[in-house]
Amino acid sequence: MAREKISKDRPNARFHGRVEANGRPCEVPGCAEAGEFRAPPVEGAPQGGERPNAYRWFCLEHIRAFNAGYNYFAGMTAEEITDAQRPYAGWDRETRAFARAGVDPGPAWADFADPLDAIGAKFRDARVNRAERRDGRSLSPADRSALKVMGLDIDVDRTGLRQRYSELVRRYHPDRNGGDRQHEAALQKVIAAYQQLKGAVAFA
Length: 204
Hints:
The chain has 204 residues and is mostly helical. The chain folds into three domains: 1-95, no CATH class; 97-131, no CATH class; 133-203, Helix Hairpins (Orthogonal Bundle). It is built from seven helices and two strands.
């Protein structure tokens, strides 16, 4: 019976915004209920410097009355009300850019020491992996990996690709190394990378 009385007399946690009063009364004169729901301070009320605004506290009945009487458009002109009611209101405001040219700016290197270049190297690798070609042609992850194998920049053209391929084949081919086959694995990687890039969209 006592539990039923409490549930009827006091709102429970299902009411959004309820805060345990701990003896705080409702601020409506003559109301003996607990002040468990907060409302903004009276407009123009002095505030305590850097301290947060002092809320007003009401019981459930009086916070409902407060909310029912709240008018967001109070004090606005007809033009301001129309502007606020547009379906896309707020979307035309400029927002902070989170990246530049698709790549986030790097950290401020002057703020800390990186003697092993561990952070710097990781950032540069990420930047290369996300950078785009100046001509707008797309590169797949496999294309980017192949460019690394051949030691080429992402903006290299088809002529530069062929020239680099010829250079690396001459460098690693056993016939150019007195029959020494120690560079054969590197040569196979170069050949595979060239085949990948030769058929890529960026070099079509």
